[in-house]
Amino acid sequence: MERMAMVIGIKPENIPEYKRLHANTWPEILAGITASNIRNYSIYLREPENLLFGYWEYHGDDFAADAAKMAADPKTQEWWDICMPLQTPLDTRADGEWWAMMEEVFHND
Q1: How far is CA 56 from the centre of its chain?
Q2: How many domains does the chain contain in total?
Q3: 102: closest CA among 7, 13, 14?
Q4: What percent of the chain is predicted at pLDDT more than 90?
Q5: Which domain, by its residues, includes 91?
Q6: Which of 3, 11, 19, 22 is catalytic?
Q7: Does residue 72 fall inside a structural domain?
Q8: What pLDDT sits at residue 75?
Q9: What is the pLDDT of residues 19-73, one digit of tens each?
Q10: What is the CATH number of the domain that holds 59?
Q11: pLDDT in tens, 3-34
């Protein structure tokens, strides 16, 4: 199992819509997350900085392949088409990233 985290900005005026969407996440999206070997997935909001922090535990053997499979799913693409305009990617994210991946620097069980 690998713990993974990411961060992105959100436009303050879009926070209520983002919360509404995620309170009613489509079943196909939840199934796709599970099929991609992702467990214990959470998204947190930090205001007034307007940052979203995502955390999950990856239980597969090839995250890149699982992520690519999820990204190719038409329902996932539809969900992202709704969610992405609400977000503000960090200028410092790596090439090819929307959410900026984060390095784990401490963990304690």
Answers
A1: 9
A2: 1
A3: 7
A4: 99
A5: 7-102
A6: 22
A7: yes
A8: 97
A9: 999 999 999 999 999 999 999 999 999 999 999 999 999 999 999 999 999 999 9
A10: 3.30.70.100
A11: 999 999 999 999 999 999 999 999 999 999 99
Question: Tokens for 80?
Answer: 């992202």
Task: Note if 22 is an active site residue.
Answer: yes
Other Cβ atoms less than 10 A from the Cβ of 54: the count is 16
Cα(65)–Cα(27) distance, integer angstroms: 22
Q: Is residue 30 part of a domain?
A: yes
């961060």: which residue's tokens?
Answer: 7
3-state DSSP: the chain helix, strand, coil percent, rounded to 5? 40, 30, 30
Is residue 109 situated within a structural domain? no
CA atoms within a 13 Å half-sphere pointing along the CA-CB vector of 41: 16
pTM equals: 0.92
Q: Is residue 98 a part of any domain in this protein? A: yes
